Amino acid sequence: MIEIEQLTKQFGDLRAVDAISLTVPAGEFFVILGPNAAGKTTTIKVMAGLMKPTSGSVRICGFDGATDPLEARRRLAYVPDFPFLYDKLTPAEFFRFTGKLFGMEDAAMEAEAGRLAKRFHLGEFLAKPIESLSHGTKQRVAIVSALMHAPEVVVLDEPMVGLDPQHARVLKDILREQADAGVTVFVSTHQLSVAEEMADRIGIMHQGRLVAVGSHGELQAANRDSRLESIFLSLTKDGV
Amino acid sequence: MNGAKPIPHWRLLAGVNRTQNWRRLRSAVARSRLHAFLMGLFVVGYAWLAYALFHKALNFTSSFPGLGPVLIERMMFLLFAFLFLLLLLSNVIINFTNLFRNREAQFLLSLPVPHQSIYRWKIFESGILASWAFLFLIAPLVAAYGATHNAAWHFYVVTPLFVALFVVLPGILGSWAALGLARWVDRVAFRVAAVLSVIVLIVVASSWLQPETVTDEMLETRVLDVVDRLLARTRFSLFPFLPSYWVSSGVTQWVEGALMGTLFFGLVLLSHTLFFGYLASTRSGGFFYGALSAVNSRGAGAAAGQALGQAPFAPRLLDRLAKLLWWGRADARALLVKDIRTFLRDATQWGQSLILLGLLIAYIVNLRHFSHRLTSDFWIDLTSYLNLGACALNLATLTTRFVFPQISLEGKRIWIIGMAPLGLRRTLMAKFLFCTAVSMAVTMALVGASCAMLSIPAERVVFFTLTIGVMAFTLNALAVGLGAVYPNFREDNPSKIVSGFGGTLCLVLSFLYIVGMLSLMAVTSRWAFGGNSAAVFWLGWALFLSGSFLLGWLPMRAGIRKMASVEI
Q: For residue A130, what are the domain limits?
């Protein structure tokens, strides 16, 4: 579960996130949309503990990211838009390293990483140096390393960038399964089709504020429009 | 699933980074065995040559009865005092980059790794990066010191232990300074502080290094008084609260057999290292997270023109200045403006240039004290050639550090200029001409000023100024040419680009060129060291010019060819 209360983040004179409040319950697939510089990535970075909020709070499974960061991050899987990987390690070594950081036993780590790697067709790359992999393959490695410790909350920033349609499908399926199993999934994307197809609820951010939240149907009803694209454009027209 | 016995984060991070670095080293050796061989040769050659020279110098100094041991001991105190300052500065810079501009640190922050563990790992890593080169440089001197005093084998065991304890302190203090800078000093304040610091450094160095008037009569009758006055300005190194004082005292007393004294200073050092080490490794993590959050939360800041209310596309000062180069084409001028802006907005780049320039200015300002003391022609000639050498070596450092990586720094953006009508060949030439013009103007002015400080006759001032001008041409051509022949488009960090094979080759060739040409110029000089005929002098100049031209032209030609065939 993710609980965001009156979250504000200021960069000098710029208010990137402006007093947003949102609760994403366990088992929900939440997609956040918004034009560039709407404040999506900043919100996610505060959720991941990369920066302190100027005011307000973020709780992951009841643990405040500012006062109890370790417990919050233990339950979180976070993949940034440009994930960091140790370029001289192989994916297998990288999975072992992140598994140890999460306190996983070797057998559990091998089983879970192996299962996810198989679904993402990473088998042939597991023993190759990460630096030799393509952008999309590195993205798949980062996703597997984040998901393998059985997180309670998954936060992904632009996860589809670099993935081919086949692996984008795999990721969508896995995230849906996670949500169905009770995991909170929070995804930021520019692909409206992902939101339409996958999201239980959709949030639209614009100029640091959460201007709309609801299921696809609720957004359609509230805006008297059937297409998510036109709803999105009408709600964010100043920033496009 | 989470029932495994937890492995300390420290061990995990050390293990993964050890594997990374070992593989990096192995792949570097596999990629270029010649590079690895040259690096190995340089390491062994430096250690051997430095040890031999230091040993000879220390033996010579110790041959003065009474005076020698005093001078040598003070030199050890000075060595460690300056080492402390340099380590402190180096740790501030490296800790700042490693804590706040490092992707691994950001990655670890999103994992269940305590802030304290990340901070502890990063200051350990920074301490090693900041210290190893300095320790490598002073090791031959300390070894020569032990050999001069016929120290027993255990001196060579105890001294590294002392030094290992010692380097922890500037490491921790440097990391705390970096935390403070990150937490409270924004970009503009940092720029102002850096420029002011260099100005203060120059003023302090100029006023502090004043000459002492010593007459022949004083040298004959009051030697101790003269020595005392000469050493007065080095007394700061004897300040008992400086960690360098503890390590120097420990090392010098051990070599003299005063073991209790060594034990005392060893314990002082150990207690401070443990105390500050404890604070750093258990109490600074929260502050690190606060500082990192402050850095990440800082606004990008408005560009200068926007702050003044100008339209975003309105030409700024640099654009207007570039128009003064009316003979250059617009695209080449745009490239220069882009390069200058990139340089000025990279604090690491201009900060290092500022430090080098500050040291050079402090050196030249202090040359004026030299000229009053030099009465023999031999010493005047020697000093003037050494002065030329110092300026040329400084220039070589600048060209290798800042000019060589120019093409590589285009990196993933190389397609922009590669696909533009400007083309890579003209890009190379534009960078070469610009860097040469700037470095020629600066070095010719500095050499002219330093010659004036040494009160050298006008014709020799012209000679030395022209010589450094030619050297600027060659060293820049060498750096630009080799930078194009050995580009590294995958790396964004100029320090790492320079440390590759091409950078090492550039530095070695630059140094060999300077030493060779300086020797040639001195040997064929018309006035120095006995003087030569006009024919020998002009022959020397012809060899210098042709050698300089070849060493500049050949790499440039190879660079242009490489650029013509580079795959973007």
A: 85-150
Chain B residues whose C-beta sits inside 8 Å of any chain A C-beta: 1-4, 6-7, 9, 12, 16, 19-20, 23-24, 27, 103-104, 106-107, 109-115, 289-290, 292-293, 296-301
Query: Could you report the per-residue pLDDT of B428-479, keeping only the tens digit for each?
Result: 888 899 899 989 998 899 888 888 887 888 888 899 999 999 999 999 999 9
Express each pLDDT in B244-284 by its tens digit.
999 999 999 999 889 899 999 999 999 999 999 999 999 99
Among B19, B104, B111, beta carbon nearest to A73: B111
Is A189 within the bounds of a domain?
yes
User: What is the span of the domain harbouring residue B96?
Assistant: 76-210+230-294
Q: How far apart are CA A98 and CA A109, in angstroms?
A: 9
Report whether A153 contacts A75 (CB < 8 A). yes
Classify A59 as helix, strand or coil.
Answer: strand
CB contact under 8 A, B1 and A86: no
CA distance B205 to A32: 58
Of B563, B544, B561, B495, nearest to B90 by C-alpha is: B495
Same domain for A5 and A70? Answer: yes
- Say what the ipTM of the complex is: 0.93
Q: With an 8 Å Cβ cutoff, are A98 and B111 in contact?
A: yes
Q: What domain count does chain B have?
A: 2
Residues of chain B with Cβ-Cβ distance to A115 below 8 Å are none
Say if B351 falls within a structural domain: yes
